[in-house]
Amino acid sequence: MAARLQIKANHPVKLHRAEKTSAGQGKVHYDPLGANARIATDSGILPFIMLDVEATHGMYLGYEWELGGFQVTAGSDPLDITASAHPITEKVTRASNEIFTIPSVYYGTYQGDIDDGSNCFKRWFWNHKITRSLHDNENEPWVEVCMQEVGGKGASSITGNTPQSIFDRLAATGAECVKMDFWDGTGNCWYTNRDWKYRPEVWPNGFDFAAKAHKAGLKASLYMGGTYNDCDLTTIAGRDAELAAVLTRYDQGWFDMWRTDLYTAPKEPIPQTYEGVTNFLYIQDHLIKNRPGYRYENCCNGGKYKGFAICRRMTFCTMNDIDQDPGMTRSTYYSNTYAINPVQLKSDIGPANDAYELRTHMLGSILSWAADNPIYRQHISLYKSKQRPILRGADVYHILPMADGINWDGLEYFNTGIRKGSIFLFKPSAKATDGDAKVIKLKGLDRSARYTLTFQERTNLNCVMTGTQLMDTGIAVTGMIGDRASEIIWIDGPAVTPPSP
Question: For 9-30, what is the HEC assignment?
Fold first, then answer.
């Protein structure tokens, strides 16, 4: 046990938690704690819970590692609650004078509802804990695309014979990083066996993937999954062998960002035991400390690996392995953003051909298939100039229900540091219950301030409203006609009241 808190509530409590969701529909649980309640979570739940008192105040509890879960119990009086964190799942022995690491625990209280509690935590995490390279570089996270010819469907087509012009064209679209995944253009894994070595017959001029990317002004993300030569990451010898392999390849200029994954390997390709966690984090910490340009892309068979320890080290993670369903992706943004800053949650839906797809991409960090069309260039430019600055430290408000593939869904972002925000709205189906128009109530604004709202598409709806109007009355959004309708509303404010004539 890493922590045990005894809590006395003044009114009935609901326990809020969200599933990691590696693939498929996101899930959120929000259950009342009655007398003698007993609720336990496991590693499928994000390591963050909130105890909410009638949407007026509450407390949160989180821990850093991926393992274990929480136990929450109530006494015969349901207002007497005990919450404990159990991140270590096996017996661990240490000799005299050896170090035993207890994962860090986060806890705090908040005023407001679960969005307010979530944002209170995420704001603190962004300021003090999140990966410093991401926090300190305003042009990150990089816009990432699969390394392939434009129009590809996600399967890598790259070999040593891929011309420089392909890299140049991808850079011209506004993309900033190319990802080379498991497969190469021969239909095989790009490296032989498990040794992370390229095949000379496929790369006759040497492994120049990153060199060509850099020449085009792009960064390079390289997949090296499993463990190096199946080494055992529960051991120091395995840890050191893998670290040496990554360092060698980084120093040879093969990549800027290491992309890991989980597949069948004898031991710990992604940490699943106490020793595996400590050794994997050691590898990441060494790379971050000693190679300032190094970045980590967390791909673990979808989003199975989403703890705060890795959020302190990664740039972004694969969030959902369903790569062609925008609704599934948005449902995971809905659930995961209660715990994790959206800037670290990467869309992997793939297609990037229309506004509906691209606005889904823009809800966090971006990975798409290679595309080059006017709507792609427009939205990548919007992301880099408007949405990415908002995401970097944004509060998130779940202003509509989770995406279900039919009815309206959407999220509101507001960054108090720059006094700007965005509202992303989606109406997946013409069969939506609310039809083509809906009143949207915002959250988290200054009631006395005036805000300028600018619609990306439906500019006839542009307006200036007070925080009170936007939160209590709402803004009417009309003209969302047919299937796959979407809109972005940009929030600027507080607006300056013009002088009287």
Answer: CCCCEEEEEEECCCCCCCCEEE
